[in-house]
Amino acid sequence: MKSRIVVLVLGLLLFSSCIVKSIQPFYVKNEIKYDAALVGNWTDNKNGDWEVLSFEDEFKKENEEGVKLSAEDLKVYDSYKNGYFIKYTKKESEALFMGIPFKVNEHLFIDFAPFEYESDELNKLVGQHLLKTHSTAYVQHNEDKSITLKWLSEKAIGALFKQDRLRLKHEKIGLDEDLVLTASSEELHNFLKKFMASDFEDKWDSDDIYTLKPAHAKP
């Protein structure tokens, strides 16, 4: 199913390059947990705008009732029906992500993956080198109805690797030697359980924390 929203590569670059990326999703299917409170329009503390839509609702809008769906569309629906379309906009650049909410014990996380991107300014050969990886953010509901997203930081995870306190399959790739986790989803989910239970300092990097407030909220 093609999205009606175009994702610009520039929009993808708005996120900090220091978040931890993974080849595989951070969630396992039996821990997916939809949270309706995330749906809506938000503004963040970094001058960005967010629109979070229910995947199921948008899927039904794009597919007329009574029309027979293809096997591919049914597979997509079954995989993402409890997820979100997440559009992030900053300085007129857009990025569209598929977001899957999931639980790690009592904690809520979202797995982010770029949904689709196009750009007339992007050389086709360069585009073929780009890999759509996953990232994950811890979701914290606040008393003032705002939401805090805390991305898994390469700074914190990299320190654990250097201290030999973490054994998880990973690679350093590219000229910038970005950290990319190559472990399975089951291994990543188990790692998040241990990560949340740990009490080491600097678990979250302030550069990778976003506080979202309802777009209609008064200052």
Automatic annotation (TrEMBL):
Q: Which domain of life is it from?
A: Bacteria
- Name listed for the protein in its UniProt record: Lipoprotein
To which species is this protein native? Winogradskyella haliclonae
